[in-house]
C-alpha cells in the first residue's frame, strides 16, 4: 500500500471520530458501510479508499452532509491529505485519546490511565464494573461500561455482528478491513502491544477496531459516556460469529430431526449398495477371466444366482435413494417455509426507520426468497450430499486398503492439496456469496421499491432510460460477482479434476505392473480403480458440500441479521391498554425529536400539547416540514422522542404494549394504501373478525356510497390503485372507524382531492366529530378541514407558537394562523 493510501486511511478514521481541524465543530451522525479484503483485491487500494470516502459523504457535519456541502470525493481526499501532512500518526493518536478522555469526563465519567502505564490506549472508568463477569475482561485490563448497557450480556454481544452494541443505541456494520504493517506497528508502538495482539472498543465515539484485521463503524445516538477496552473478548471476533451462525444454521433443522435421521438411514443403505458394486464386479471379472471355473467366486453361487441377487440389491438401493430424496426435499421445503415465515414476521416487527430507510422492502424480499432458499438447501440437500460423500469415501477407502494398501497410499497423496484447496475456495465463496446476496437485495430494492412502484412518474418524465441505466449497473455488479465465482469454480474444479485423472493414470500404470507380477488380480485392480473414481467423486462432492455450506453461511448471515435484530422501538411493556380504564387526556410534555437518519436536524423542540379526552378535536397547522406529521408518528410510536414524554391519562405511553395501544387508535394517511382483496377485506383490515353489518355501518359513516353502486358491492375485488383518490380516502376512513378508535389521526386526508371528493370526505369527518365518541387529531392545510376542529395549534420551528379556536384566531389580525392561512382566507 502506498504511503498516500495509508495516510488517507488514518485520516478517514480521524474524520469519523470528528477530530479534523479543517471542519469546524464536526457532528457525525448515522453511517454504516461494508468494505472487506475482497473488495480491496477486486478494485485495488485506490478504489477501496475511494469507496470508503464515498460513504463518508453521507456524514453530517454541522447539520449538512458532506455531499450537501458540495464536497465530492476529490474534495474529501484533499481535506484528508492536507490534514494528514500536518499531523503525524503519533499526534493523531495522542489527540484522539485526549478527546476521548474529555468526552467521557464531560459525560460525568471519571477516566484516568490504569496503574499499568505500559499502554497509552488503556483507560478505565472508576466505577463498579461487571465487565469481568460479562465479558471475561479482568480488572487489570481496561474496561468499558455504560449505565445504558448494563443489561447487555455476552450472549447478546455474541449475536451482534462484530460485537456492536445492539439497537436502539447503535446501528452497526462489521467491516473486515486490511492493515499494513506500518499501521499495525504504529498502533502497537503506542499501545505497547505486539502487532495484531490488541484492540480498542470505543462506545459513544462510534468506532470499534481490533488489530486482528477488523474494523466496525457504528452510529450512536445520543452520545454520552465513553471508555476504551484494550482487550477484545474471543466472543467478539469474526470467527466466533461464524461458528455461532453455523450453530444457528443447524438449529433450524431440529424440528425435522426424525425426518432427517430416517433420510440419513436410507442414505447409508443406498450408499452401502452403491459401494458393493466395484468389489462384486471385480470378483465377477476374475471369475470369467479364469474360464468361469467353480470356486472362483467368494461364495458357492452360480453366476445366475449372483446376478439375481445383485438385481435385488440394486432395487433396494434405488428404493432407499428415492425415499431419501423425498424426505430430504420435504424437510427442506418445511425449513424454508418456517424460515420465511419467521423472517417475514421479524421484518413486520421492525421499526419504520429500518424498513423505509435502511433495508428497504426490496432487500427484505431478497432475504425472504433467495437467501432463505439457499439456507434451506444447505441444511438438507447439501448436507445429504456431504454425509453421502463421507460415507462413500470411508467405505471406499476401507475396501481399497483391503485390496491393495500400496495403491491406496499412492491415491491418497492427492487428498491434502485438494482439501486445502477446497477449504480456501469455500471461504472465498462464502464471502463472495454474501456480497452477491447483498447485490441482489440492492438490485431488487431499486426495481421493486423505487422504479416500478413509481412507474407513472418514471413514464411521465420519460426517465425509463435513466432507470434502465441504474438497474443495469446493479445487474452488472451481480453479473461481475457471478463471473468471478465461475472463474474460481473453473480453476478449482479444473485443477482437482486434472489431479484426479493424473492419479488414476498413475494407479493404472503401477497397478498394471503389479498384475503382471501376479501381486494383484485383474478383477481387484478393476475394483480398486472403480473405488478410486468413487472416492474421487466423493472428495469432489465433499469440496462442493463445503463450498455450498459456506455459501449458505453467507446467506444465513443476512437472514439471521434480520431475525435477531431488535427493533429500535422496543416493546417496553406488556401491560394492556384498556380503553374504558386508561383513556383520558393525551399530553405531549416538552417533547424534542429528530429522525434517526438526520439527528442534527430537530423536528420538534420542547413541544407541548394536550388532546382533552373523548370528543376533543385538535388541528395542527404549520408550514411543510414543521413537524405536523411527526406528531402523529410519535403518537403511533413509529418513533420515540429524543427527550420529553407522551402521557395518556397521566401515564407514560411506554407503560403500554405497542399492540394494545395501536389497536386503540386509528389513522387515515395522506396517501392510503389498499391491499389486494375485496372492499370488505380492506375495510376490515384492522378488525378481521368484524361482521358484515359492522363493515357496512363503518362504510356508511365514511360516506362510501359508491360501494353500493358496484355490481359486487363489498365483494368487489380491488388492488392498490383500483379506486380514485377520494374513494380510497373514504375506504381508509371506514377502516379506521371500524376499529372504534379512542383517537383518530387524519393526516392531510383531503390534500390531494378534487372539490367533490373533498366535500364527501369532509362530510365523513364532520360525522366523526359530531359523534363525540372519539378524539381527533387533524393535520391539514385546507381551511375546509381545519375549520371543523374544536381547537387549532400552530406549529412553527418545532414549537407551538399559537393555540385557540378557529373563529378567535381568524378574527385576530396579528394571529400567526391568519398569516399562514392568508391566501385561503382572502379567497373566501
From TrEMBL:
Top-level taxon: Eukaryota
Subcellular location: Membrane
Entry's transmembrane regions: 260-281, 301-320, 386-403, 409-428, 489-511, 531-550
Keywords assigned by UniProt, alphabetized: ATP-binding, Membrane, Nucleotide-binding, Signal, Transmembrane, Transmembrane helix, Transport
Membrane-protein topology: Multi-pass membrane protein
A molecular-function term among this protein's GO annotations: ABC-type oligopeptide transporter activity
Domain annotation ABC transporter: ranges: 586-822
ABC transmembrane type-1 domain segment(s): 261-551
Any GO BP: oligopeptide export from mitochondrion
Pfam families: ABC_membrane, ABC_tran
Major place of residence: membrane
Presence of the UniProt keyword Membrane in the record: yes
UniProt xrefs under InterPro entries: AAA+_ATPase, ABC1_TM_dom, ABC1_TM_sf, ABC_transporter-like_ATP-bd, ABC_transporter-like_CS, P-loop_NTPase, Type_1_exporter
Signal peptide annotation: 1-24
Keyword Nucleotide-binding: yes
Family: Belongs to the ABC transporter superfamily. ABCB family. Mitochondrial peptide exporter (TC 3.A.1.212) subfamily.
Protein name: Uncharacterized protein
Amino acid at each position: 500500500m502506498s504511503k498516500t493510501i495509508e495516510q488517507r486511511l488514518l485520516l478517514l478514521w480521524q474524520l469519523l471520530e470528528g477530530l479534523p481541524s479543517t471542519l469546524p465543530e464536526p457532528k457525525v451522525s448515522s453511517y454504516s458501510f461494508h468494505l472487506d479484503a475482497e473488495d480491496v483485491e477486486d478494485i485495488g487500494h485506490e478504489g477501496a479508499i475511494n469507496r470508503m470516502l464515498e460513504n463518508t459523504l453521507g456524514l453530517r457535519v454541522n447539520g449538512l452532509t458532506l455531499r450537501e456541502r458540495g464536497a465530492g470525493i476529490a474534495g474529501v481526499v484533499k481535506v484528508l491529505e492536507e490534514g494528514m501532512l500536518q499531523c503525524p500518526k503519533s499526534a493523531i493518536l495522542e489527540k484522539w485519546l485526549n478527546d476521548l478522555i474529555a468526552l467521557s469526563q464531560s459525560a460525568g465519567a471519571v477516566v484516568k490511565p490504569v496503574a499499568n502505564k505500559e499502554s497509552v490506549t488503556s483507560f478505565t472508568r472508576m466505577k463498579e464494573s461487571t465487565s469481568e463477569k460479562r465479558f471475561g475482561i479482568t480488572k487489570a485490563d481496561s474496561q468499558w461500561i455504560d449505565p445504558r448497557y448494563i443489561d447487555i450480556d455476552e450472549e447478546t454481544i455474541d449475536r451482534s455482528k462484530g460485537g456492536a452494541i445492539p439497537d436502539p443505541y447503535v446501528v452497526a456494520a462489521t467491516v473486515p478491513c486490511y492493515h499494513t504493517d506500518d499501521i499495525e506497528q504504529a498502533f502497537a508502538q503506542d499501545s505497547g502491544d505486539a502487532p495484531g495482539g490488541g484492540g480498542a472498543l470505543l462506545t459513544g465515539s462510534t468506532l470499534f477496531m481490533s488489530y486482528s484485521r477488523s474494523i466496525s463503524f457504528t452510529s450512536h445516538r445520543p452520545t454520552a459516556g465513553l471508555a476504551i477496552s484494550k482487550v477484545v473478548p474471543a466472543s467478539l471476533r469474526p470467527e466466533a460469529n461464524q461458528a455461532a451462525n453455523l450453530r444457528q444454521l443447524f438449529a433450524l433443522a431440529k424440528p425435522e430431526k426424525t425426518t432427517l435421521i430416517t433420510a440419513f438411514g436410507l442414505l447409508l443403505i443406498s450408499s452401502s449398495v452403491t459401494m458393493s458394486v466395484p468389489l462384486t464386479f471385480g470378483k465377477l471379472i476374475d471369475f470369467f477371466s479364469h474360464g468361469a471355473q467353480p470356486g472362483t467366486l467368494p461364495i458357492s453361487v452360480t453366476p445366475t444366482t449372483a446376478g439375481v441377487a445383485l438385481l435385488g440389491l440394486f432395487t433396494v438401493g434405488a428404493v432407499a435413494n428415492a425415499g431419501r430424496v423425498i424426505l430430504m426435499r420435504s424437510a427442506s421445503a418445511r425449513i424454508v417455509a418456517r424460515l420465511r415465515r419467521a423472517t417475514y414476521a421479524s421484518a413486520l416487527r421492525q421499526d419504520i426507520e429500518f424498513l423505509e430507510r435502511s433495508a428497504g422492502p426490496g432487500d427484505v424480499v431478497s432475504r425472504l426468497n433467495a437467501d432463505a432458499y439457499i439456507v434451506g438447501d444447505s441444511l438438507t440437500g447439501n448436507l445429504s450430499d456431504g454425509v453421502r460423500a463421507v460415507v462413500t469415501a470411508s467405505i471406499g477407502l476401507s475396501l481399497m486398503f483391503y485390496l491393495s494398501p500400496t495403491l491406496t497410499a499412492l491415491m491418497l497423496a492427492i487428498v491434502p492439496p485438494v482439501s486445502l484447496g477446497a477449504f480456501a475456495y469455500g471461504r472465498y465463496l462464502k464471502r463472495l456469496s454474501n456480497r452477491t446476496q447483498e447485490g441482489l437485495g440492492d438490485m431488487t430494492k431499486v426495481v421493486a421499491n423505487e422504479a416500478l412502484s413509481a412507474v407513472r412518474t418514471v413514464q411521465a418524465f420519460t426517465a425509463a432510460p435513466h432507470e434502465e441505466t441504474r438497474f443495469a449497473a446493479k445487474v452488472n455488479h451481480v453479473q461481475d460477482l457471478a463471473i468471478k465465482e465461475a472463474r474460481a469454480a473453473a480453476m478449482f474444479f479444473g485443477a482437482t479434476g486434472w489431479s484426479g485423472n493424473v492419479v488414476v493414470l498413475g494407479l493404472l500404470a503401477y497397478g498394471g505392473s503389479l498384475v503382471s507380477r501376479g501381486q494383484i488380480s485383474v478383477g481387484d485392480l478393476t475394483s480398486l480403480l472403480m473405488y478410486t473414481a468413487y472416492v474421487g467423486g466423493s472428495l469432489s462432492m465433499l469440496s462442493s458440500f463445503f463450498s455450498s455450506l459456506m455459501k449458505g453461511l453467507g446467506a444465513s448471515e443476512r437472514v439471521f441479521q434480520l431475525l435477531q435484530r431488535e427493533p429500535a422501538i422496543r416493546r417496553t411493556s406488556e401491560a394492556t391498554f384498556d380503553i374504558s380504564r386508561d383513556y383520558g387526556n393525551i399530553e405531549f410534555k416538552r417533547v424534542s425529536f429528530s429522525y434517526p437518519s438526520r439527528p442534527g436536524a430537530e423536528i420538534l423542540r420542547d413541544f407541548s400539547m394536550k388532546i382533552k379526552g373523548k370528543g376533543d378535536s385538535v388541528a395542527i397547522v404549520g408550514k411543510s416540514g414543521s413537524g405536523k406529521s411527526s406528531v402523529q408518528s410519535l403518537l403511533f410510536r413509529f418513533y420515540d422522542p429524543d427527550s420529553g414524554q407522551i402521557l395518556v391519562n397521566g401515564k407514560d405511553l411506554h407503560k403500554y404494549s405497542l399492540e394494545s395501544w395501536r389497536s386503540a387508535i386509528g389513522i387515515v394517511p395522506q396517501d392510503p394504501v389498499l391491499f389486494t382483496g375485496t372492499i370488505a377485506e380492506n375495510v376490515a383490515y384492522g378488525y378481521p373478525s368484524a361482521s358484515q353489518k359492522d363493515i357496512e355501518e363503518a362504510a356508511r359513516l365514511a360516506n362510501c356510497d359508491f360501494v353500493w353502486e358496484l355490481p359486487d358491492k363489498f365483494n368487489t375485488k380491488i388492488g392498490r390503485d383500483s379506486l380514485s383518490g377520494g374513494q380510497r380516502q373514504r375506504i381508509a376512513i371506514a377502516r379506521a372507524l371500524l376499529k372504534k378508535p379512542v383517537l383518530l389521526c387524519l393526516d392531510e386526508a383531503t390534500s390531494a382531492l378534487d372539490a367533490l371528493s373533498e366535500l364527501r370526505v369532509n362530510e365523513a369527518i364532520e360525522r366523526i366529530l359530531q359523534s363525540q365518541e372519539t378524539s381527533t387529531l387533524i393535520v391539514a392545510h385546507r381551511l375546509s378541514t381545519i375549520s371543523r376542529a374544536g381547537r387549532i395549534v400552530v406549529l412553527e420551528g418545532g414549537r407551538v407558537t399559537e393555540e385557540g379556536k378557529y373563529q378567535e384566531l381568524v378574527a385576530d389580525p396579528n394571529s400567526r394562523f391568519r398569516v399562514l392561512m392568508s391566501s385561503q382566507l382572502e379567497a373566501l
